[in-house]
Amino acid sequence: MREVAESIELASTLPELNVLPEEYVRLLGYPRGFVLEGRALDLAEQARDWYAENGRPWFYARQAETFELAGDSIYIDGLPFVSKRLESTLRQAEAHSVILVAVGAGPEAEEEARRRWADEKPDEYFFLEMYASAVVEHLTTATGARLCDWAEQHEMAVLPHYSPGYPEWDVAEQPQLLELMKRTRREPFPSCVDALDSGMLRPRKTLLAVFGLTHHTERLRRLTGLVPCESCSFGPCQYRRAPYRRAPRSNTEQVTARMTVLDEDAEYSVNRKALKRWAEERLSMDIHQDGSLDAVFRYDGTTCTNMGRPLTFHYNVKLGPRSEGYPIREQHCAPVPGDTGHTFMCQYIEDPTRLMGSIDREKPLHGERLNAVLSWRRELSGAGCFCDASSRNHKWGLVFETIHYALVQRELAQEAEER
Ligand code: SF4
Fold it and tell me: Which pTM was predicted?
C-alpha cells in the first residue's frame, strides 16, 4: 500500500460555468453540427437562463490517502472496489494514486424540472433536465482539466475517469464511494448528496468518479487508450495528447436521456405479454436516420353482430425524432384494401359515410409525445368493431402502447449492447 507524497484537494460551490452549446445539443439528442432554432432554441435559452439564475453547481476533488491494486480489487483508503475496466487502466498505466471527484448540478434544477412535468410542460422539463446533465458533464471536464494542469506541473498524468454504473463497475458500489468522498480533509463536502440502496444518487444530477494518476507519462504516448483527451472537450488545454473525439455518453446519461423520452417502467393498459406479441406479429416500423419513424399496425377483429365477420384495419403512424420525444405527427386508420368485413358493422349499415368519416377524422393524441399515451385516460372497450368512439379510442390506445413498448424494448436492447 502506498502513501502519496503529493496531494491535492479542491472544492467549490458556484464554479464558473461554460456549457458548450454543441455539448448541450448533443445531450438533447440532435446530430452533430445541428443548430437549434425556433421553439427548440427558445426552450434551450430558457433552460440556460433559468439555471444561470437559480442553479447551484459544485465540485469536489481529493487525492486518496492510500491506494493499492490487490487481486481483482482496487483498495482506495482501505475500502475495496471491483471494476475490471478501471483496474486494467490503472494497472496498464502503472498508476500510483487516484483522485476522487464528485460534481453536481445541485437539487434546484431537478426540483424545477419536476414542477414543469407536474404542470404538464414536457418540453420545458426535458430541456432543463438535459441542461443539468450538460452542467454535470461540463463540471467533470473542467475538474479534470484542473487535475491535468496540477498533474503536469508535478510531471504526472491523469487517466480517463471512471464511475460506478459504467460498464464493469457495479452501481451498487456507489454508496461506498460516496462515503469515501465525504471523508474530506481541509475542505467541507460542498453539497448534500445521498446514495439510495439501489446505488443511485440523490440529487440525480451528481457524478462520482475516480481518476487514476501516473508518473509514467511516456506509457500514455504508447497506449492511447489510457489518454483521457479524446473524450475531453476542454478547448484551451495546453497539454492535450489527442484530438477531441466525442465519446459515447456515459450509461447513466444515456439511460436518463432515454427514460425522459420513453418511460421504461410504463404502466400500460394491457399486459406486456400481449404487447410483446402484438409488437412481433402486428407491428412494423421503419426507423429513419434522424430517429423519426413510420409505423404500421395491423388490427384484426370481428364485428360484434352480423355473425362476427372478420375485419382488418391498418393504423399508419408517423412519429417525429426521439430527440423531440417522438411527437405523433401523422396518424391514419382505414380498412385494408379489399376488406369487406367492415361493411357489416352496425353503424356502417346505418350510415356508412358518418362511420367511415369518424374513423378517418379522429386523431387522438395528435401532436403529443408518444409517452402521453401512458397518461391518456380513456374508456376501456372490448368491442372488436369501430361503431362507437370509445372502441375507436381504445384501439388507438393499443396501437400507441404497442409502439411505445416496441421502442422501449429496442432502446433497452441497444443499451445492453453498448455495455
Ligand atoms: S485535453 Fe487532455 S490533458 Fe487537457 S484537460 Fe483534457 S484530458 Fe487533460
Answer: 0.60
